[in-house]
């Protein structure tokens, strides 16, 4: 029987199994670019003059928290993920590095219990690729629902570059080298192979960007480093 790689239970299991090695592999898979990309996708947000409510969707183990707090120091940070494995590290991080000030929620974003019209900022790094089109539609509607009027959002995802040579090199790196590194150092080669499978199906954030635009959010598509990552950002106007 063919596996549905977009089934939330399958995705959750994948991230539970990868959680012990994810942070190091994330750094390696993006050649260290993930740190720069996290900073860049947050640059799209304009500061508010009041204490802002931010939510980091699909937070993983909190890889984006430092960049978020640097960009928006006067803010309350809520984070959401559904993987026990990833959240175990996130909760530890909140305690040891963030004085227990990060509110960590274990929920499925597609069936969440978040309040409506509440957040000034919705952010999400590297979480889009494991959603299919119907799920992206729910994500867009939920982003719109939980944002305040005038609230802003920014999303980024690893993507397949449009340049042919870069695409071959990046594909070889992510599809072949990373699983070998995963096997040598971490014991999760199959899980890391899946990341490239998701990326090559996802391609880039254009479809997701259009979906966000079509639900009525002001949305701007953006490419980072020759399309090795892409994303979109914008605002809820009404
Ligand atoms: C690739 S990781 C990204 C982690 C982190 N944001 C980063 O910047 O590296 C994607 C995360 O999304 C979570 N996730 C995937 N689908 C989800 C869903 N439907 N609801 C909540 N979390 C989900 C996974 O558990 C995983 O931790």
Task: Tell me what you see in this structure.
There is one protein chain. This protein has a seven-stranded mixed β-sheet with strand order 3-2-1-4-5-7-6, sandwiched between helices. The mean pLDDT is 92. Strand 2 (75-81), helix 5 (84-97) and strand 3 form a beta-alpha-beta unit. By secondary structure, the protein is of the alpha/beta class. The termini are far apart. Helix 7 runs antiparallel to helix 8. The protein has a single domain (8-235), classed as 3-Layer(aba) Sandwich (Rossmann fold), CATH 3.40.50.150. The chain contains nine helices and seven strands. Bound molecules: S-adenosylmethionine (SAM). The site of S-adenosylmethionine has 21 residues, from helix 1.
How would you concisely characterize the structure shown here?
α6 crosses α9 and α7 (about 165-185) packs antiparallel against α8 (about 190-200).
Entry keywords:
9 helices, alpha/beta, Rossmann fold, binds S-adenosylmethionine, 238 residues, 7-stranded mixed beta sheet
How much of the polypeptide forms β-strand, as a percent range? 15-25%
Distance between the termini: 45 Å
Q: How many individual domains?
A: 1
The CATH C-level name is Alpha Beta
Structural class estimated from helices and strands: alpha/beta
Oligomer, anyone? single chain
Task: Record the SSE blueprint.
Layout: H1 8-18, H2 22-29, H3 33-42, E1 52-57, H4 65-71, E2 75-81, H5 84-97, E3 103-106, E4 119-125, H6 133-146, E5 147-158, H7 164-186, H8 189-202, H9 206-214, E6 218-224, E7 229-235
Parallel strand pairs: 1-2, 1-4, 2-3, 4-5
Antiparallel strand pairs: 5-7, 6-7
The structure holds S-adenosylmethionine.
């Amino acid at each position: 029987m063919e596996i549905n790689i977009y089934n939330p239970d399958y995705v959750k299991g994948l991230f539970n199994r990868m959680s012990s090695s994810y942070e190091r592999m994330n750094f390696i898979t993006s050649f260290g670019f993930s740190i720069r990309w996290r900073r860049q996708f947050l640059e799209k947000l304009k500061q508010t003059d009041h204490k802002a409510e931010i939510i980091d969707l699909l937070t993983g183990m909190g890889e984006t928290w430092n960049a978020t707090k640097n960009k928006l120091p006067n803010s309350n940070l809520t984070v959401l993920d559904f993987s026990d494995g990833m959240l175990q590290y996130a909760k530890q991080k909140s305690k040891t590095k963030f004085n227990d000030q990060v509110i960590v929620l274990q929920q499925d974003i597609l069936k969440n219990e978040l309040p409506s019209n509440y957040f000034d900022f919705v952010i999400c790094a590297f979480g889009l690729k494991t959603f299919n089109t119907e799920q992206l539609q729910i994500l867009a509607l939920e982003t719109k629902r939980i944002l305040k009027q005038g609230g802003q959002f920014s999303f980024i995802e690893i993507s397949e570059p449009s340049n042919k040579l870069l695409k071959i090199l990046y594909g070889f790196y992510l599809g072949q080298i990373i699983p070998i590194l995963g096997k040598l150092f971490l014991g999760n080669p199959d899980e890391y192979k899946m990341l490239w499978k998701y990326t090559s199906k996802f391609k880039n954030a254009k479809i997701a960007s259009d979906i966000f635009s079509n639900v009525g959010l002001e949305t701007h598509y953006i490419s980072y480093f020759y399309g090795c990552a892409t994303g979109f950002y914008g605002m809820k106007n009404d």
